[in-house]
Design goal:
Elements lengths: L4 H21 L5 H13 L1 H11 L12 H19 L6 H8 L1 H11 L4 E11 H13 L4 E6 L6 H15 L3 E6 L13 H5 L3 E4 L19 E5 L3 E5 L18 E8 L2 H16 L7 H8 L9 E3 L12 H7 L1
Helix pairs in contact: 1-2, 2-3, 4-10
GO biological process, one term: cardiolipin biosynthetic process
InterPro entries: Cardiolipin_synthase (IPR022924), CLS_N (IPR027379), PLD-like_dom (IPR025202), PLipase_D/transphosphatidylase (IPR001736)
Pfam family, one: PLDc_N
């Protein structure tokens, strides 16, 4: 009796197509991603599903949206208070820029609930030594909380200098929380942060992935670089925590990047993003809703000349907001 290989082939093709359709459509994604993954899964049956396991799977929404509505409510309340204090109708050159970019501003408000923050003070850094000199000064002056989130937090000279300072502040009673990416901070383990944990601080790898070898979702890396101090000073940009960013590695030479220091209500956007990422990452030591308002979003009377929106994207995003804005 001859085996009908063509029948087996047809069955495999049909089953693979059904599984591909089920796999792709079970999670919400944009149309381009749907077609791309369908083609990969249908025409590369085994290889396609392996690739999908590493690059295509999304994360459960219930793990990513804790505190989202409550945080946004607190932001709205704080901004309403600030508008009364700062004079919402005041016209500045920065306001004219906003009017010319109204389409992008409205899009970010709609897709990311990214509020428009006015009258911030912003300083730009393009040199790592200047940046970390100021960061260290600000951390030294922290009174209530220090929130740090970085793709790279290396176990090197600047990494240990920052860690020692965080340990010192934790011993003083300052709340210290650190999120680092296990892939970007390769070589930095939980043991490195143990002195901080022993001092009362907290440190977790992003989404609590302790090993890059066990992390199959290699597309979900935390490339954010965020520092928020006392809810009043914020940093974000391109520099990570590592000696190479200060020009100490011959292999990399002088590192040119851009980072900004923010004072004003623009810090609230960074704080909100950190809280969302923290509660998605930390299995314990969650930031309680009752603590959010007074502790992390203090009213500021800063009167600067920069308007801004803090816009983020990641595994909790159903669209690439930044790409939409730059292409519109």
């Amino acid at each position: 009796m001859n085996f009908d290989w063509s029948l087996l082939f047809n069955i495999v093709v049909v089953v693979n197509a059904v599984l591909a359709i089920f796999t792709v459509f079970r999670e919400k994604r944009d149309i381009a991603a749907i077609w791309a993954w369908l083609l990969v899964l249908v025409f590369l049956p085994l290889v396609g599903f392996i690739a999908y396991a590493f690059l295509g799977r999304k994360l459960p929404k219930n793990r990513l949206f804790k505190l989202h509505k409550h945080v946004q409510m607190q932001l709205d309340e704080r901004l309403n208070e600030q508008r009364k204090q700062l004079g919402h109708n005041a016209k500045t050159p920065a306001d004219e820029v906003v009017l010319r970019s109204r389409t992008a501003v409205d899009m970010f408000m709609t897709t990311d609930a990214a509020f428009l923050s006015r009258q911030n003070k912003v300083h730009i850094y393009t040199n790592g030594n200047d940046l970390f000199h100021r960061v260290i000064e600000d951390i030294e002056g922290a009174k209530k909380s220090i929130h740090i989130e970085f793709y790279t937090f290396y176990n090197d000279q600047i990494g240990n200098e920052i860690l020692d300072l965080l340990v010192k502040k934790a011993k003083q009673g300052v709340e210290v929380r650190v999120i680092y990416d296990s892939w970007g901070s390769m070589g930095t383990t939980r043991k490195f942060f143990q002195p901080l944990i022993d001092a009362g601080g907290h440190a977790f790898p992003f989404l609590n992935t302790r090993s890059v070898l066990l992390d199959f979702r290699i597309n979900f890396r935390d490339h954010r670089k965020i520092i928020v101090i006392d809810g009043t000073i914020g940093y974000t940009g391109g520099f990570n925590i590592g000696d190479q960013y200060l020009g100490r590695k011959k292999k990399f030479g002088h590192w040119r990047d851009t980072h900004i220091r923010i004072i004003g209500s623009g810090v609230f956007g960074l704080q909100a993003r950190f809280i969302l990422d923290w509660n998605a990452t930390s299995p314990r030591d969650q930031i309680d809703e009752e603590e959010v308002e007074a502790k992390y979003f203090p009213v500021t009377t800063t009167k600067g000349n920069v308007n801004m929106q803090i816009v983020s994207s990641g595994p909790d995003s159903d669209c690439n907001r930044l790409r939409w804005a730059t292409s519109s």
